[in-house]
Amino acid sequence: MTQKINFNGTIEEDPHISVFDHGFLFGDSVYEVIATHNNKPIFLTEHLNRLTNSAKGISLAIPYDQQWFVREVNRTVQIAGNEESYIRIIVTRGVGDIDIDPSSCQNPNVLIYVTPIKEYSPDNYSKGINVALVSIKRNPKEALNPGIKTGNYLNNVLAKMEANKLGAKDALMLSPTGYLTECTTSNIFFVLSGRVLTPSLDCGILRGITRDVVIQLSKENGLPVEEGQWPPETLEKADEIFITGTLKKIMPVTQLDGRSISDGKPGPVTQKLMRLYEKHFKSIDPF
Ligand code: PLP
User: Fold this and answer.
1) Could you tell me the pTM of the whole model?
2) Per-residue burial over 128-146, b = 16 or more CB atoms within 10 Å of its CB, e = otherwise
3) Residue 286's pLDDT is what?
4) How far is the CA of 193 from the centre of ligand 1 (A)?
5) Which amino acid residue places its CA nearest to atom 8 of ligand 1?
6) What's the average model confidence in pLDDT over 227-253?
7) What secondary structure letter does DSSP report for 112?
8) pLDDT per position as a tens digit, 73-84
9) Atom nearest to 212 CA in ligand 1
10) CA distances from 141 to 90, 173, 227 (A)
11) Cα(211) to centroid of ligand 1, in Å?
């Protein structure tokens, strides 16, 4: 089990980055997290497309093309040789003056971290987790659009700290206008009278790659999906709640603010989607 980090094309175990890199100084960077199956990256194209879009969103010119990333991600994963890997790609603004103006940064840095994957506890999946609706609001999209996956995660860090204090595993945030958005590193879904509901992109959320797959699988399997703007009270009537993300895949939420959802066990729709997602994930032919 090893850790390998690809730093601008050179693979090392613990490379060092300048303290003048604006990624470090200002969170001026974009990133992606990718999971593997049989130690091959899954949904790599989708993650690279989103990385490209995030970089465009902050006017950051990525110095390499997608083929370079495909080659270097696979090479780093192979050299690390783990059973399954956690892959994190980061592109920073690069080294510049200690000044928020990025124009002194000429060379973005590209890092590809590969470490052994840390699995979530099977108990989390069989029993579900407790999520807290926190007072910290998700960044408004007019300020720092949550649709851009930047390295500036302080909004989510603060929400997570509030959840920790409340004894919850994750934090659910509202938009500044009071609608449900997402959790700190996950999208949220809930089931209401057989319909699968999730906040729409215009609520100010990240367009999760897992979210897209869950929407597609629901539709293909006769589960109507509705994306919309939902006030938090809607969750009081929810029969089931689950969250989605690359590493956790589909995680049942069985308590919200300490209150049980239905009978406090993962519901049938959540369990069906967990099975469908697992099957789909394992059937993908990575390149
Ligand atoms: N929302 C936020 C804020 C995230 O950070 C993440 C993933 O890191 C997600 C949602 C889920 O996205 P994905 O399914 O692409 O991992």
Assistant:
1) 0.97
2) bbbbbbbebbbbebeebbb
3) 72
4) 26
5) 185
6) 98
7) E
8) 999 999 999 999
9) 14
10) 22, 13, 17
11) 8
